[in-house]
Amino acid sequence: SLQQFNVTSYRATALAITTLEAFAGMWINAFIVCVLCIVWVKKKTLNSNEKILLLLGCSRFWYLCFSWIYVFVSAIFPYYLLVHPIFQLLQGSYSFFNCCNLFMSACLCGFYCIKIVNFRNSFFIYLKVKIDRMVPWLLLGSVIFSLIFGILVYNTIDKAVCNNLNFTSPERFWKETIGIEEHFFPLLFLTGFLYTTSFIVVIFAALFLLFSLWRHKCKMQTSSINSLSMDAHIRAMKSILSFFIMYSINFMFLILTLIYSMTYQNHITFLAYLIQYAFPGVHSLILIFSNPKLEKTLLKILSCLKCKLCMR
Predict the structure, then answer these.
(1) Transmembrane stretches, by residue range (predicted)?
(2) pLDDT of residue 253
(3) Domain ranges of the chain
C-alpha cells in the first residue's frame, strides 16, 4: 500500500543519512581517541584537557555507534526490537552514552572557562588552582551518573513497556515506543533536567570566557602587544562562540525530540535526530582544529594520503 511504501521510504532515507553522519562522526572521534592514546603511551600521562577529550571522544564514538545500530535494526529488522531485551539494551546504552556526551561537553567548556578567565575573584582563583585535581573526580562522577541514568532507562522500558504493552504489529510497536514519554513522565522530566543542566553550564562558561577574552583583547589593543598573541585570542573567541552556537542548536533539537516524540510527528522528529547525530562529528572536528597537536597529526596523515594518491 501507499502508506507502507511511505514508511519504507522514510526508514530507508533515515538509515542512509544516519549512516553517513554516524560513520563520519565515528571516524573523527576514533581519530581523537587514537591520537590521545598514543600520547598517553609515550608520555605515560595525560593533562586534564586531554583526559576530557579522550573520554568525550570515546563517549561520542559509542553514542554514534549505538544510534546507528538502533536506526539500522529499526529500518531493516524491525521485528528484532520485539525480542527481549534488544530494545531495552539499545535504549539503555544510547541513553548512557548520550548522557556522557552531554556531561563531557559541559566539563570541557567549564574547564576551558576556569583555565582561561582572568577574574580576580577568590572563588575563580581557588578553582583555577584546584581544577586539575577536580577533573578526574568530575569525569568519574559524570560516568557514574550516566550509568545510573542508563540503568534507569533500561529498567523503566523493561518493566513498564515490555510487560504492560502488547505489540501486535510493527506499527503498534512504533506508536507505543514513540509515545513512551506519556507513560513515563518522571523519566522525561529527568531527561529534560539533564539537558538543561548541561546547557546552563555551557552558557555560563561561554559567557565568562567571551567576556574575559574580549576584555583581554581590548587591553592588548591599548598596550600594542604582539599581533600574534592578538590573533591567538581571536581564534579562541571564535572557537568558543562556534561551540556555544552549536550547543544551543543541539539543545533546542534535543528538547524538540522530547516534545514531538509524544505526538508521533515523523518529519520533526527526524530533523531533530538529524541535528543530534551531526553534532558529535562536527563539534569534534572543531576541537581537532582548535588543538595544535591533533591538527598537526591530522594534517600529517592527510598529506601522506595525498602523496600516496599522487604516486598512483
Answers:
(1) 12-41, 61-82, 94-114, 135-157, 193-214, 240-262, 268-290
(2) 75
(3) 2-218+231-305
